[in-house]
Amino acid sequence: MEALHNEEWPKAEKLLALALESDPNNRAALRLRSLCAIQMDRLDIAEACLCRIACLNPSSSIFMELGCFYEKQGVIPKAIACLERAVDLGLRSTAIYAMLGMLLRKDHPRRSEYFYEKLAEQDPKHAALSWENARKLGDSGEHLEAYAIMEKLSKTQKENVAVIFNMAYHQYAAGQHEEGLTLAQKGYEILTKKGMEPDFNFTYNIESSRYSLKKHDFAVPQCEIECEKKRRKERPYLCRGELWDGKSDISGKHLVIYGDQGLGDNIHFVRFIPLLRDHGCASITLRVPHPLIGIFDYYLNHLDGSVKVNVFPMMLPLESYPGDFYISLLNLPYRMGIRRDQVTGRDGYFQAEPALVEQKRTLFTDGSYRVGIKWQGNPNQGNDQRRSFSFYEFLRLREVPDIQLYSLHYDPADKWLDTICESEGVTNLAPHMHCFRHTSALIEHLDLVITVDTGVAHLCGALAKPTWVVTPYNACWRYPLKGEQSDWYNSQRIFRQGYGESWSSVMQRVIEALHKHMAEQSLASANLP
Predict the structure, then answer these.
(1) Residue 422's closest CA among 412, 407, 410, 436?
(2) pTM above the 0.85 mark?
C-alpha cells in the first residue's frame, strides 16, 4: 500500500503479482494490479485482471469498468458488449446510457436511440442526443424511423415547434405529404398563438409543401418582407431603394434583381423577368453567378419589346448597384401575382448562339444516338448527397445499343474525369464547357440528356431539349409528387425514386425506358418516306 501511495507503480505491481500467486482469486489484489498496469501502460495485464474479476464476480460494476477500459483503448465492439452486459445485470445510470448511445450511434443508430431514450427519461436535458440520432437517420434516408424518435420527444415537449417541424419534415420526406403539411401548419399556429415571428426557412418549407400538393401557386414565405426588413436594419449598407412588394408602382423606375440561389434556380426563374415590361419598369440590373452572365445577357436582351437588362456578377454588394427597388429573383412570380397555370416558358425560352453551336459540331460523331449524362451536382449544395449518385450507374446505359454517351459533368478538381471517360468510351465535354453559353451550344447537338437534379436539368428544359431527370424520393418542391410530367418544362420526363428504392433500381427503370424509346425512334425512322 505504501508503494501505491507513493505512486511507485512498478514496485506495487510486482508485489501484487506475488500476492496473487498465493491467492489468484483475490479480487482486491486483482483490481489494484489492474490500476498499476494501466499507469504503466501494460494494458494486457490490466485487461487480464479485469476479466478475471468479471469471471469471479459478474457484477454490473465490473462490466461497467471493463467497458470503460475498452472504450479508452478504442476497442468499441468489446466496450459495447461489456456495457450492455452491465445494463443486463441491472445498472441504470445516465453515464452508461450516454456511453452506449454514443458508441452505437455511428453504426447502430436504432439501438443507440433506445439508450438515448432511457437517458432522456432520467434526465430530460439529454433529449438533444435523440435529436442528433434522428438527424443521422434522416441523413441516411430512414425518415420514418427519425419521425418515430421525434414523435416520442413530442410527448414531453408538446408545444416545442422545432420538434413539430422536424416531425413534419421527416413525414414529408418519407412521402407522407399531407400528414407532414398538417403538422407543419400546427407548428405555425403555435407560433402565431405565442406571438412569435416564424423562422424564414420554416415558413418556406410550409409554402413549398403547399405548392407540391397543388394547394399554392408559388412557394414564397409569408414572412419574406419581415426578414428583408430585419436584414436591412442589421446591415443597412447591403442594399439601396425599397424592397418591391409587387404592388408599388415601378413605372419608369430602376429595379435591382439578385439571383442569390443556385445556378439551376436562377435559370428556372429568369423566365419571369421579361414580364416586368407589363409593369412599366424602365431598366433592370440583374446580379447572378458568373457562369450565367453570358447566356442571361443573350436571352434577356434579344427579346422584342423587353426591358433593358444589365447583367452583372454577384461578387459586389447590392449597394454597388443603386436602384429604386430591389427583389430576389425567386420571389418575382409570387410578388407579380402569377398563378401556376400562367407559368411561361414550358416549351423553352433559351436559344443557343448559332455561331457557338456550329463551332462545337466537330466534337460529335454521326451515326449514334447522342445521350448526355450528368450524375452529380455541386457537392457543396446541402442536398447533394441525396440527389447525386455514381458515374458507374450511368455507365449501365451502355446496355442500350446504338447510343453514344457524352459527359456533361464539370468540376475542375476532377483530374480523373478525362482518363476515366476515355477508358469507358464516354466523350468528355468538360474541356469545352467554359460557361453556360458554351454548355447550351453543346447540348443542342445531343438527342437526349439524362441527369440528376442540377443546373443542367434546368438549362436543358429552358432549351426545350428532351431531358430525363432522375430525382430522389424527397426531391425539391418543383418536381411533381406523382406522374412524370414537369410543371415547368414540357420537354422533361421525371424519374422519381420511391421511398426506400435504391438508385440501381431507379436506373433500371431508366434503362428500360431508354430501350423502349430507342425502339420507337427506330420505328419512326423506318416509316419515313
Answers:
(1) 407
(2) no
- Give percent above pLDDT 70 in the chain: 86
Mean pLDDT of the chain: 84
DSSP secondary structure string for all residues of 40-89? TT-HHHHHHHHHHHHHH---HHHHHHHHHHHHHHT-HHHHHHHHHHHHHT
Find where cell 436504432 sits. Answer: 110
- Which runs of consecutive H residues, i.e. helices, occur in 270-328? 293-300
Residue type, 194: K
CA–CA gap between residue 396 and residue 78 (Å, rounded): 42
Tell me how long the chain is: 529
CA–CA distance, 455 with 292 (Å, rounded to integer)? 10
Residue 154 near residue 142, CB atoms below 8 Å: no
Q: Is the model's pLDDT at 349 over the cut of 90?
A: yes
Beta bridge partners of 428: 407
Q: What's phi and psi for 165, nearest 5 deg?
A: -65, -40
Query: Residue 411 in 3-state DSSP?
Result: coil
Task: Give the whole-angstrom CA distance, residue 293 versus residue 444.
Answer: 19
The pLDDT score that the predictor gives to residue 27 is: 86
Distance CA 320, CA 237 (A): 10
Set of cell numbers at residue 489: 418544362
Beta sheet of 325-328, edge-to-edge order: 242-243, 325-328, 254-258, 283-288, 308-313
Three-state DSSP state, 29: helix
Three-state secondary-structure class, residue 374: strand
- Alpha-carbon distance values, 173 to 75, 90, 386, 475 (Å): 36, 39, 11, 8
Question: Predicted confidence band at 237 (pLDDT cuts at 50, 70, 90)?
Answer: very low
For residue 137, what pLDDT band results from cuts at 50, 70 and 90?
Answer: confident
- Cα–Cα distance for residue pair 448/439, rounded to 1 Å: 14
CB 279 within 8 A of CB 251: yes
400 pLDDT tier (thresholds 50, 70, 90)? very high
